[in-house]
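Sequence in, structure out. First:
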Amino acid sequence: MTALLDFYSARLLVTFVSLVLLFILRYRTYRRLSQFRGPLSTGWLELWHIRAILSMRSHEWYREATDKYGSVTRVGPNDLITNSPDLLAHMSAVRSPYTRAAWYNRATRVEPGKDHLFSLLDEDTHTKRRQKMATAYSGKENTSLEPSIDLRVQQLIQLIRSKYLSSSNSKTPSKPMDLARKIQYFTLDVISYIGFGQAFGDLEADDDVHEYIAASEAGLNLMVYVCGLGLTPLIQWPPIARLLGPSEKDKSGHGKMMRTARRLINDRIDKLETSKEKGNDMTASFLHRGLTKDEIFTEAYLQILAGSDTTATAIRCLMLHIVSNPRVYNMLQAEIDNAFNDGLVQADGIISEAVASTLPYLQAVIREGLRIHPPITDVVPKVVPKGGDSLIVDGVLTHFPEGTNIGYDVFGLARRRDLFGEDVDVFRPERWISKELSDGDSERMEVMRRTTEMIFGHGKYQCLGKPIAWMEMHKVIFELLRYFDWSIAKPATPWRSINCIGIFLQQELWMVVTERNVELLLG
């Protein structure tokens, strides 16, 4: 009893000592990165960074921070973000000793304990897995890649024609179409065919057939809180994961989607193994390169998310900026009409990737669209290697202590005034037209190109699906403006868009679409 009374009497002393020790630990953490400026409290607490993620506008928070505090900004006790192209390229170089940060990449696992290319932290395993998968994405073993995309573009055009055309007659009611949803149907059908050898059929049904979109929206909204509050280790702890995580027995949501994906993959693998056919899709390529069934499932499921949501965002953003800029709209449509008139594309065919890549204004519009609104803004932090690292950033030799997380401010990178000019917030494709630059600016143009390419990652972390995304953007933008005229149905509120740890969820991009008489226009 006396001991309890003594302890009770000493409670103030115990509390005081505990607070002193806590302050000392926090101060040591603060001092490690004290050379880097950042918003108030970021050297002591995670609160600012948590709020940025939970705001679902993290790309804007990061951009505002680096604009105010510099190319390398502190956003947490052990976290920095950067919009320096030199530092970003250095961290992701093929032989870079930097590694991925667990708090972010591990949160993207499909199943606890099972990694895909994006969640892998071990660099050797990541490199070997990437080498096995690269050929499938390049199209060398996937000869049906471009024809399969052409077919989905044709289905998208047919869907618009059959159900969503408005009349140019002012007395006839318009029929607004949610382009955001139709574009996601398109990208889902593309990636499911490429990955599974069988399209989901969303365009044909004009519906979210497997309820993927609903599952994705629910899952990404949840991931904001899991990642933002640092709950990944808890949520992915097997007992908790079995209790709260998705199950393939679920009747809806990610569990149902996982069950559908596994069935499609198993059916495809069984067919390949029993028929002994070589196959020309990604599943066949992965199988031939030695990936196991579980690895193929995990990678294919990642494709659905990374390959459909991000490309859909890119196309939506392009269409919104094109349609809302009459000068750009008219110039691009004129280039498209001239390409048709010059015989570069057939009347009943889809433009080829080879031809699309030669159209200068189309290229400029797409590059500017990716710059003005990058389709993915994941922070993908890298960890400073053992012993720390030093690099010249904006002309100043900067030291980064070992173990520091350095994230990617892609929105800020794409709006750097020293690279893209003072009008970085303006959608102006002409900045990409070489003939408007003097000879001395050719190097600057190359820097601009390399910088925007970082939207797809860089070096050992560059997105394998980049060629597929470019092909989809080329074809869809060209054909939608070739056959139809577009206007925004609700200019004051053109869409709903939120950022879920780097992936955008966009809805209600309502457009009014009318048919163009191409033959009459071209005479």
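Second:
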Amino acid sequence: MRIKRLYQITRTFLHYGLNELIPAKWMPWSVRFARCTLFWIRNKHTDLPPGVRLRLALESLGPVWIKFGQMLSTRRDLLPPDIALELAKLQDKVKPFSGERAQQLIEASLGLTSIHDAFDEFSVTPLASASIAQVHTARLKSDDNDGADVVIKVIRPDIRKAIDADLRLMETLAAVLAKHLPDGRRLKPREVVREYQKTLLDELDLAREAANAIQLRRNFEDSPLLYIPEVYSDYSRHNVMVMERIDGIPVSDIDTLMAMGVDMKKLAERGVEVFFTQVFRDSFFHADMHPGNIFVSRKNPKEPQYLGIDFGIVGTLNREDKRYLAENFLAFFNRDYRKVAELHVDSGWVPAHINVEDFESAIRTVCEPIFNKPLADISFGHVLVNLFNTARRFEMEVQPQLVLLQKTLLYVEGLGRTLYPQLDLWQTAKPFLERWMKEQLGWRAVVRSVREQAPYWAEKMPEMPSLLYDYLQTHKHQVTRQELAAQAMLQVQSTLAWRLWWGLASAGGLISTTLLWVTDQNHWLTLTGAIVTVTSIMMSWRKPAQTR
């Protein structure tokens, strides 16, 4: 099954001529030879532009590859503009499945005889179609929720089979890479694939997505930065989710945003702030922030607000990772490369035997040239290549729990590049991180901790006298028991010392008596030695006097 899928992927790539997009000098001889052996598979789309061929190939391979194309579409510094624009269509313009089939799935999931049992209106034509699901517009019945306009998200039918096939193939390839690549242990391909597998399978459960949306909506309630639509939980199931319909401008529609007079600089800065707020304040972040999932409110162009959808992929960070990340970011923004190197060693991301001075110098070499530059002037493709080479040189291990965060940061950087290329990413994020660190480490952290614990201590305060009395009583009994135990220990030690002393005396007497007997000494002297020896043996078995 895996070999069949691998052949299908290879055939698709060659069928759309994707091998022609890679310069021949970059392809090892083994790959060129393998291409020659598949001579019967020809490029059947020579008339299409490269971007269209790449999009169609990824689209035909299914959701795993479509997700990969979505991520690539945000990195216009790594791809030619025409290819990036074409891949952007994968964000919400994937070929839909039948609207009638979607209606049947909704009716079956909600237990409806007819779609109109719950909705006054339902559009069979999908509003948008993505890799995992598609969306239809509807209106709830007038007697329920005041006839609110909603959208219904429906998981594609039979999608699990295609995903499972690709994930099994990825597991096989990861095992091969881990075994044969020199960097296999450091890059942790198996762990990364497992993390991606968990993320992708979670995205197939719309009940989980609904819970994620409710959590994010609570985190940003009444926030001017981000609005999360309301989820109607009564109409949501594992493969169907109903939520409030929003009216916004796609964040990728720059012409419309400019025409409406949106403050693009503030919009880009707020995107960075939304990201860092989710990561460091909430430890719960939207991890699929590609342009197809982000809109801008029409209400106040001078104070732009983001509208977010599609919450199937979210990320979390534990306290330790969050702390190390914040300290790394701050040290990086302050150009304290020594601190960055030490933090990597302290966190275990880099082995302890690595020379910190050499690691510091390597980080400085990569990062120093990009400071004080707007995003438009930074070649992140070049920076990424250098960072990967540095990580390999210093045996830095991939952290699977940070893969989602790294992907989201790429989305945010790509979004900032699109909205406002002059954005100073460092100066925008630095004040937020400095404020967060002060709240975590300074007097504010102490005050907050006391305030958070106050209800608990207020509840326990009436019990304190009895708890104190119980403690003192217990302590008193423990002291008595410890004294008795100490006396018993002294008695044991005294007994052992007594028996050791008389045992040595017995051994000495026995040896002396034996020598007197063998050498035919005076019988009275020999008898006296024997009496002393017997007496010593008897004394060694007596118990010593009790010590107090």
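Remark: Residues 250-441 form one domain.
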